Amino acid sequence: MTLELILVKGGQLILSLSILVVLHELGHFIPAKLFKTRVEKFYLFFDPWFSLFKIKKGETEYGIGWLPLGGYVKISGMIDESMDKEQMAKPPQSWEFRAKPAWQRLIIMIGGVTVNILLAFFIYAMILWSNGYTYMPVKDLPYGIQVDSLGKSIGLQDGDKIVSIDNKEVKEFEKIPVYMILHGSKTIQVDRNGQPVNVTIPDGFIRRVMGIMKGGGSFIAPYMPDTVPYVARHILEDGAGAKAGLKPEDRMLAVNGVATPNVKSFLAEMKNQKSKTIDLQVLRGTDTVMLHPALDTTGKLNVLPYTAVTIPYNFFESIPAGVRMGVDKLNSYVLQLRLLFVSKEVKVTESLGGFGSIAKLFPDQWNWLDFWQLTAFLSIILAFMNILPIPALDGGHVLFLLYEIITGRKPSEKFLEYAQIVGMVILLGLLLFANGLDIWRGIFGK
């Protein structure tokens, strides 16, 4: 990985985490202030020994730490990672967290998770409002699927038309591999030359699919016979083809003067291009049109010869649609975590990762749509992980507060201190393990 690529991916990761952390901590900060609870510090990133920047306004010190592993708000009278035993040894003051009613403390603690969930819903809604939702319907692939050697090894063939998976319809082609992984699928039903065929998925297949997906690939793709013309049926927004004025149903006739009467010849010529700008001759209706697209860094036009459907949303429609998308992403993430415990084909050492793995999710080029989609997904992950009932996380504090509300008995401060220490040890261990796996893979390529 080049230095430029590291800076692009790292920059996107840091910006995304900064947004998520600041808003998460605001979720604690705002209700704390509303309930007249003193907040001593509000920090983006951690600041052991020193901070990069700090300023004090009123009773709160605002700052930026040097260790980009999160952030925090230090609330007076609360047992947290600061482990301020000196303050806790003093009698409770009216402005301290521990002096507030349990229901107020509960609202303060769930504020961060609430903000992260709402943020994800909002981002998804705005994406749908501005871009709509585009997908490739499985039933609209005229030539069926193309399979690699892995797909052929289980009995799939080029031209098969997928009808269902485990006898359940999957409408979106792009979701098929993920659906199979999350649900541990056992069979694929296909239409082969008009005849129904049931393909059995053997043990070990799902794990190999996951390996392909880690590299950005898939074991299936829409099939296009080499002998049919290459027709632009879906033009990606802001892609090279769209910018050059390519229209849906344009038929590719020639690239730099070389005739491209079919898919095979067109793809071959595009692969051979060395220049950034090409001369592209297309047939539009009965007219021949010459275009001069400037290819992207991957040398592609970003034009697909398959039908894709875009569902538009107005502002008011985008809100509930964004909520549904966020819930769907959360459900998928929970299913992924479940696989770590119940699937024989999913290994923790292959699936878990730290900040390096997260950074790899971001694209090689700065793309705001991809950035916001990943930020929304990371916001959901942050919310879910924080609400887990582990001491030192928001969920641990919530668990003890619910116990107090239900039983009327408050856990002793000594117990909370020990629980905080145990939670911090667990979290530090997980952090070292996950990032250690990234380092191991970076060195040994596994």
TrEMBL record:
GO molecular function: metal ion binding; metalloendopeptidase activity
Domain called PDZ: residue spans: 208-286
Cofactor(s) listed: Zn(2+)
Localization (cell): Membrane
Location, primary (coarse class): membrane
Keyword check for GTP-binding: no
Name assigned to this protein: Zinc metalloprotease
Phylogenetic classification of the source organism: Bacteria, Pseudomonadati, Bacteroidota, Chitinophagia, Chitinophagales
